[in-house]
Design brief:
It is found in: Cytoplasm. It contains 19 helices and 13 strands. The chain is an alpha/beta fold and about 425 residues long. It has three domains: about 5-235, HUPs (Rossmann fold, 3-Layer(aba) Sandwich); about 250-340, Tyrosyl-Transfer RNA Synthetase; about 360-435, Structural Genomics Hypothetical 15.5 Kd Protein In mrcA-pckA Intergenic Region, Chain A, CATH 3.10.290. The strands form three sheets. Strands 1-6-5-2-3-4 form a six-stranded mixed β-sheet, with helices on both faces. A five-stranded mixed β-sheet has the order 9-13-12-10-11. Helix 15 (about 310-320) packs across helix 16 (about 325-335) and helix 16 (about 325-335) packs across helix 17 (about 350-355). The protein is elongated and about 85 Å long. The mean pLDDT is about 95.
Length: about 425
């Protein structure tokens, strides 16, 4: 994946006294080890901090994007990021609330490590005075024998404390129970923090608040083994104001990989943000200043029909993840679907993504009469209804009005040699694929 987002244009809001105050305003602090100490630490000399990403899928998703942007904000404040992609923890997976994870093969996990490292690289700067560094916990766990692991690390963990961690406790009370494998996950994550403390002087770990038990297993381990105090910061889990789960669209996770979630689908997800959620999303997912976010919030309240907040949110986050060029293509595709642009300039992939949710039908090259197309697509339920639509001026093919009920669409009008976009009236759309 190319380095698409423009890191040079990103900066923290100078209206805040320090980065901690900005993180608080953005709603990114849910739980932390010691708020007063952390603020002092982050306002002082550069520190090294880390966040871990496990390769339990071939792409990161929106929950991970929250962490990447927290990391970037800290880097913009002068601190030094370590991006950890968990080659070893990814072989186990942290305990989910409901059931055991499917264990992936070592080859699959190794492949996914590469994908995730590529994604992490796009959100952090690896140049300048405080460049990011990539680390993989397989480097220090692979050489360790089971005996050494138990003697050097395991002896510092108390089973009673481990059992009380939320992720473990909820699973212990479920029908599924929890395996020793997943139970051990917090020890591995604690060991990561200890290793990074020893190797880099790492003094802060960030993550989602659902990871708090794992985050604090590291701070406790360092306290016991090294006698030093280090920090953890847990961001809130993002939920929609109506109680539905954030980051899902039609039952699918919103992935950062364009092959798993097209830029068009990604953009539409943000565009469909509820008014009640727009300001919170702008705070978390964009680098807009407080003044800019507040102005958009006012617009959402006073002119909700204009959807200025949603449009700005969709543009900013899609540009951040997929680049400005891809975002502009998506906006052009949205406009073209409803007659405000030239469909022929859309590349095939964008066209397919933009029309993926529409009713569709496949016809052969002989069936290109406008009446047959309207019926085949489902836009008209009979030939007589289709004739009526054409007669009333409501039939369009590729945004061009068709007024003759006997019209036959020519082969050279097919988009990318095989597609047609049909429209009845202003808003009823369908696609036709012409088979060879």
């Amino acid at each position: 994946m190319s380095h698409v987002n423009n890191l040079e244009s990103q900066h923290n809001d100078p209206a805040f006294a320090n980065v901690w105050q900005e993180l608080k305003w953005r709603g990114l602090v849910h739980v932390s080890t010691d708020e007063t100490e952390l603020e002092k630490l982050l306002a002082g000399d550069p520190i090294t901090y880390y966040c871990g990403f496990d390769p339990t899928a071939p792409s990161l998703h929106l929950g991970n994007l929250v962490q990447l942007l927290v990391m970037r904000r800290l880097q913009l404040a002068g601190h030094k990021p370590l991006g950890l992609v968990g080659g070893s923890t990814g072989l186990i997976g942290d305990p989910r609330p409901t059931a055991e994870r499917t264990l992936n093969t070592k080859d699959t996990v190794a492949e996914w490590v590469g994908y995730l490292q590529g994604q992490v690289r796009r959100f952090l700067s690896f140049e300048g005075e405080n460049p990011a560094r990539m680390v993989n916990n397989l480097d220090w766990t692979a050489p360790l024998s089971a005996i050494d692991f138990l003697r050097e690390i395991g002896k510092h963990f108390r089973v009673g404390t481990m059992l009380r961690k939320d992720a473990v406790a909820s699973r212990l009370n479920s029908d599924e129970g929890i395996s020793y494998t997943e139970f051990s996950y917090q020890i591995l994550q604690g060991m990561d923090y200890l290793q990074l403390f020893r190797d880099y002087g790492c003094a802060l770990q960030t993550g989602g608040s659902d990871q708090w038990g794992n985050l604090t297993s590291g701070t406790e381990l360092i306290r016991k083994v090294e006698g030093k105090s280090v920090h953890a910061l847990g961001t809130p889990l993002i939920t929609n104001s109506d109680g539905t789960k954030f980051g899902k669209s039609e039952g699918n996770a919103i992935w950062l990989d364009p092959d798993m979630c097209s830029p068009y689908t990604f953009y539409q997800f943000w565009l469909n943000t509820a008014d009640a959620d727009v300001v919170d999303r702008l705070k978390v997912f964009t680098f807009l200043s407080r003044a800019e976010v507040e102005a958009l919030g006012q617009s959402v309240q006073e002119r909700p029909f204009a959807r200025e907040g949603q449009k700005k949110l969709a543009f900013e986050v899609t540009s951040l993840v997929h680049g400005v060029e891809a975002t502009e293509k998506v906006i052009a595709a949205s406009a073209a679907l409803f007659g405000n642009g030239d469909l022929s300039v859309l590349d095939e992939r964008t066209l397919e993504a933009a029309t993926a949710e529409l009713p569709s039908a496949t016809v052969n090259a002989e069936g290109l009469g406008i009446i047959d197309l309207l019926v085949a697509s489902g836009l008209s339920d009979s030939k007589s209804a289709a004739r009526r639509t054409v007669g009333e001026g409501g039939a369009y093919v590729n945004n061009t009005k068709v007024s003759d009920p006997d019209a036959v669409i020519a082969q050279d009008e097919l988009l990318h040699g095989r597609y047609l976009l049909l429209r009845r009236g202003k808003k009823n759309l369908a696609t036709i694929e012409v088979s060879a």
